[in-house]
């Protein structure tokens, strides 16, 4: 068993990150290095020199230079008692509603042969560590946090949602466009898309069914995010129709429960609770899951946990208790070759 | 083609005695578009409303609905109907879809597309509406349809205060024998979950705008519609081709509006620009010993007792010299006023060109 830790990415992580992205079907994307101002790239690994099992990019504010577009999923009712008619219709309206929000993006994690519980653990620690960083530097982030989940795609990577809606307005193949422009291709495509409300019932069945559906491989991520306090925002991606989750940052459990502590050495006999403890700052952020106790107003950690964190007695850390719906919080994953 | 003389047709206001003929016409009309449903009580009420409209002294309350019949005097029977509603949607709003086009362009992707949308609108509310056109198929290739359709314009010109200065006409869109239309099936049905005849039945004699109010109020993006429905936009039912072509020749525009139910074109125009109206003039009836000269539409200038027919009138002069037979058809005496317009507008066009 190996202990997980989360830390800011370094240049040496790029090949591993690229491999994870490919594993998640985003080989074309790649991540920007070094991260732009306001962007933080976090990775999960199994210790010094250990395997990188997941990555995540936290952006302070999105859509302020290149506009970002989503469809708002609304509802209209057509009702006439005399006709015994009562029909609810879903509507889609293109817009930039989440502009300025903070975002968790480029979330990729080792999937092949990894049990779902372990995938969930890696994702949960990544997400919670990002939230701790938002709490640590609260003023640097927005009041609103969003996450786009990947939507439904066929084996060739084509999305039925795009086939049913976008393709009628934009002839360019979305996969080739993404290769050429990266994620910005969606802003270019948005210029071609309908600006007024679209009734979902005009779309083919497969496109309608894809609205706000996360891809099966991303369901574990959706569960982790929802457990962390995010909810479906009634917005979807314009290309694959995947759901956009959102939360008010100040109401997130990890943000509300986090506080700054001085650390001390824990007496092994003291009762302890699982906590995510982070240390450092943006660009040099690192977190581990530990068993911690409160003693004399300080957060008491075991010696080896302090070492994993790279902090000594008296150091300041940011910590939040972790509840988990994903099995025992050992913070351990099975060591793999 | 039937062997007919242009002079054997007379257009006049409908009367209750015409009910059997109008019932026959209602039964033969294309489903869905005719404002003459095969319903005896409804038709009688419609005729009585029309009689009232011709009689009333109140100018232009807007709710008048005029129903004309065309008689073949040689056969001694009614062979067609046409009507005018003074103000479309008088009791309510008049709904249409307006065709709009927007060019969506992305410089980065090097792509630009002309996107067709349909906008639910009330643009035509208050327009004068030409309605209820029906001619027996045997007469389709004669001049009778010209008189039946265009005499209405002479009536409008004569009693302009009773009508709007813009005029529209609905023409039937594509539908099958059961009244199902591909446009309704892909647009209306998504909001009603029933076929159009069923929706009309359930609406129970309410105005069509009752149904229209339940239609989508956001623009409909045509590229999202299946091909059958896209193709039906602005397409005529074959039964509508004849009245449609007469109106296009008059100068009606067919590009802007379509019917919200079946997608058929709704044509519209400024009354003053219609060719029959522009070339119509008032004249005093004179005496011609023999009919001669080009054929004209000739209409009386009274409301009650309005009549129109086709007659030969020699060109030039302030008088409209009519032979005795034509005067008898119209019920006019020498010295009375009539309004006349040339039957064949091609000749007018060449006159215009040479002028």
Walk me through this protein's architecture.
The complex is a heterodimer of chains A (337) and B (355). By secondary structure, chain A is α+β, with helices and mostly antiparallel strands. Chain A has a domain at 259-330: Barwin-like endoglucanases. Chain A has nine helices and 17 strands. In chain A, the strands form two sheets. A five-stranded mixed beta barrel of chain A has the order 12-15-14-13-16. In chain A, strands 1-17 form a two-stranded antiparallel sheet. In chain A, helix 2 links the parallel strand 7 (102-109) and strand 8. In chain A, helix 2 (116-136) packs across helix 7 (219-227). Chain A is elongated, with a radius of gyration of 22 Å. Chain A starts with a strand and ends with a strand. Chain B has 355 residues and is α+β, with helices and mostly antiparallel strands. Chain B folds into two domains: 6-100 and 119-276, Gcn5-related N-acetyltransferase (GNAT) (Aminopeptidase), CATH 3.40.630.30; 280-354, Barwin-like endoglucanases (Beta Barrel). Chain B has a 15-stranded mixed sheet, sandwiched between helices. In chain B, helix 3 (144-158) crosses helix 9. The longest helix of chain B has 16 residues, at 40-55. The mean pLDDT of chain B is 88. At the A-B interface, strand 5, strand 6, helix 5 and strand 9 of A face strand 4, strand 5, helix 5, helix 6 and strand 8 of B.
């Amino acid at each position: 068993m190996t202990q997980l830790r989360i830390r800011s990415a370094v240049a040496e992580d790029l090949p591993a990150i690229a491999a994870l992205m490919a594993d998640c079907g985003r080989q074309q994307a790649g991540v920007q290095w070094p991260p732009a101002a306001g962007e933080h790239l976090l990775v999960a690994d199994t210790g010094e020199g250990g395997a990188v099992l997941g990555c995540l990019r936290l952006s302070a504010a999105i859509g302020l230079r290149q506009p970002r577009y989503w469809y708002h999923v609304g509802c209209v009712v057509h009702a006439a008692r005399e006709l015994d008619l009562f029909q609810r219709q879903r509507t889609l309206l293109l817009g930039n509603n989440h502009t300025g929000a903070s975002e968790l993006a480029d979330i990729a994690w080792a999937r092949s042969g990894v049990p779902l519980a372990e995938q969930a653990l890696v994702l949960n620690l990544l997400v919670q560590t990002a939230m701790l960083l938002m709490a640590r530097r609260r003023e640097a982030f927005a009041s609103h946090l969003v996450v786009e989940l990947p939507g439904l795609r066929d084996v060739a990577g084509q999305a039925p949602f795009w086939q049913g809606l976008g393709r009628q307005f934009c002839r360019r193949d979305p996969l080739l466009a993404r290769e050429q422009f990266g994620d910005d291709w969606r802003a270019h495509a948005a210029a071609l898309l309908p600006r007024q409300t679209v009734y979902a019932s005009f779309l083919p069945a497969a496109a309608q069914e894809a609205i706000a559906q996360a891809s099966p491989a991303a369901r574990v991520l959706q569960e982790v995010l929802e457990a962390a306090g995010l909810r479906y925002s009634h917005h979807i991606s314009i290309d694959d129709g995947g759901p956009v989750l959102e939360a008010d940052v100040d109401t997130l459990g990890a943000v509300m429960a986090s506080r700054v502590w001085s650390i001390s050495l824990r007496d092994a006999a003291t009762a302890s609770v699982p906590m995510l403890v982070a240390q450092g700052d943006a660009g040099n952020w690192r977190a581990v899951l530990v068993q911690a106790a409160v003693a004399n107003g300080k957060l008491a950690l075991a010696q080896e946990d302090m070492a994993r964190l790279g902090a000594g007695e008296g150091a300041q850390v940011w910590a939040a208790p972790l509840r988990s719906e994903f099995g025992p919080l050992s913070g351990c994953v099975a060591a793999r070759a | 083609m039937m062997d007919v003389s242009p002079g054997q047709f007379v257009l006049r206001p409908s009367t209750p005695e015409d009910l059997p003929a109008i019932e026959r016409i209602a039964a033969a009309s294309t489903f869905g578009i005719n404002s003459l449903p095969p319903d005896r009580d409804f038709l009688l009420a419609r005729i009585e409303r029309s009689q009232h409209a011709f009689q009333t002294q109140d100018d232009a309350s807007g709710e008048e609905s005029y129903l004309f019949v065309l008689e073949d005097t040689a056969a001694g029977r009614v062979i067609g109907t046409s009507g005018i509603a003074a103000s479309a949607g008088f009791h309510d709003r008049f709904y249409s879809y307006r065709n709009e086009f927007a060019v969506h362009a992305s410089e980065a992707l090097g792509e630009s597309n002309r996107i067709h949308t349909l906008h639910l609108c009330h643009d035509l509310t208050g327009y004068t509406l030409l309605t209820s056109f029906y001619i027996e198929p045997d007469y389709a290739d004669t001049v009778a349809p010209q008189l039946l359709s265009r005499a209405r314009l002479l009536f409008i010109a004569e009693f302009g205060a009773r009508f709007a200065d813009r005029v529209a006409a609905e023409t039937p869109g594509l539908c099958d024998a059961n009244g199902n239309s591909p446009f309704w099936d892909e647009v209306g049905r998504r909001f009603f979950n029933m076929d159009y005849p069923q929706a009309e039945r359930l609406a129970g004699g309410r105005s069509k705008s009752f149904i229209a109010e339940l239609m989508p109020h956001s623009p409909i993006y045509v590229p999202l519609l299946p091909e059958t429905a896209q193709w039906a936009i602005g397409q005529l039912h074959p039964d509508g081709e004849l009245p449609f072509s007469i109106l296009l020749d008059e100068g009606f525009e067919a590009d802007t509006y379509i019917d919200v139910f079946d997608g058929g074109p709704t044509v519209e125009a400024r009354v003053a620009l219609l060719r029959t109206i522009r070339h119509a003039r008032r004249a005093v009836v004179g005496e011609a010993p023999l009919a001669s000269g080009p054929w004209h539409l000739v209409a009386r200038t009274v409301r009650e007792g309005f009549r129109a027919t086709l007659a030969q009138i020699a060109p030039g002069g302030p008088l409209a010299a009519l032979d005795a037979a034509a005067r008898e058809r119209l019920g006019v005496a020498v010295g009375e006023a009539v309004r006349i317009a040339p039957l064949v507008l091609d000749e007018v066009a060449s006159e215009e060109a040479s002028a």
